[in-house]
Amino acid sequence: MTESAPITSLTNPRVKRVVRLRKPRERRREGVLLAEGHREISRAVAAGLGLAEWFACREMLDDQLDGWPEAEPTWVSREVLAKMAYHDKPEGALAVFETPSFSLGDLPEREAGFYMVAVGTEKPGNLGAMVRTAAVAGCDAVLAVGPAVDVFNPNAIRNSTGAVFALPTVVVEDPTEAVAWLRERGVTVAAALADGGADCYQLDWAKPGEALAVVVGPEHAGLDQTWRDAADVKLTIPQAAGSTDSLNASNAAAVLLFEAVRRRSC
């Protein structure tokens, strides 16, 4: 990497712009996202996202050079990087990428498609964890249903370990649109309920060669009537006797996705 004098001023216009990008409305307005650290930046590069600019602090970087953008970074001081960073413990680099845009129309039709549907997931970290699990489980896409979803929030990016860059994650504000899309493709809708569903380990609910969507709702309210009516199968994860609380959404998604993987591979 070419040596150049680092930015040391906290009031530098480029620094102030990145600080503004920590706000969701500013990221949406500019159509960009923030990626921090080697893992997230290298995975954004690998996914082919358009790079707007990136910043690095020499003092904080290790000797890992693979996966960084080819363009020279703008060097900054430790204090400046800390000012720009979204997270409390920055890893030495931060990049601004163009936000990828996925829509339902972009998703290819697959005879045995496998989908994760996250309904009303308001916490970005939870959504990121669900996307990460969906990627590892081999899902073709994630449908993030609800108006408050911020798929490319820095917490979602970090908790997904960058999976949101490669696995199509489509924001669908209207749940009826998501239901219609699944119905048109003959996808079996398996809805997770806190109670009232069949035992997910006992019911024959996922079959090889069958298109399947696992639907998980918000922790505080669960799935609404739209999804209960749309469900071909209603599932409950059995809990230990005397348990006072349910799994959180990302854990429930992991249990059901990998149970589906097991069944679909038999």
Describe this protein's structure.
The protein has 266 residues and is of the alpha/beta class. It folds into two domains: 13-98, 60s Ribosomal Protein L30, Chain: A, CATH 3.30.1330.30; 104-264, 3-Layer(aba) Sandwich (Alpha/beta knot), CATH 3.40.1280. Helices cover 33% and strands 19% of the residues. The protein contains ten helices and eleven strands. The chain has helices at 13-20, 24-30, 37-46, 78-84, 124-137, 154-159, 163-166, 175-184, 225-230, 249-264, and strands at 32-36, 51-56, 74-75, 93-98, 114-119, 141-145, 169-172, 188-192, 198-199, 212-216, 233-236. The strands form two sheets. Strands 7-6-5-10-8-11-9 form a seven-stranded parallel β-sheet, with helices on both faces. The protein has a four-stranded mixed β-sheet with strand order 1-4-2-3. The longest helix has 16 residues, at 249-264. The model has no long low-confidence stretch (mean pLDDT 92). GO terms for molecular function: RNA binding; RNA methyltransferase activity.
Say what the CATH topology of the largest domain is. Alpha/beta knot
Round the Cα radius of gyration to an integer and report it: 21 Å
Question: What is the CATH superfamily of the largest domain?
Answer: SPOUT methyltransferase, trefoil knot domain
* β-sheet strand percentage: 15-25%
The CATH architecture of the largest domain comes to: 3-Layer(aba) Sandwich
Between the first and last Cα atoms, what is the distance in angstroms?
Answer: 50 Å
The CATH class of the largest domain is identified as Alpha Beta
Oligomer: single chain
The average pLDDT is 92
Shape: elongated
Residue windows where pLDDT falls under 50 for at least 5 positions: none
The SSE string, one letter per element, is HHEHEEHEEHEHHEHEEEHEH
Biggest sheet character: 7 strands, parallel
So how many helices? 10
Count of structural domains: 2
Strand order of the largest sheet: 7-6-5-10-8-11-9
Fraction of helical residues:
25-40%
Q: How many E-type strands?
A: 11
Structural category is alpha/beta
GO molecular function: RNA binding; RNA methyltransferase activity
Domain tRNA/rRNA methyltransferase SpoU type: 114-258
Family: Belongs to the class IV-like SAM-binding methyltransferase superfamily. RNA methyltransferase TrmH family.
GO biological process, one term: methylation
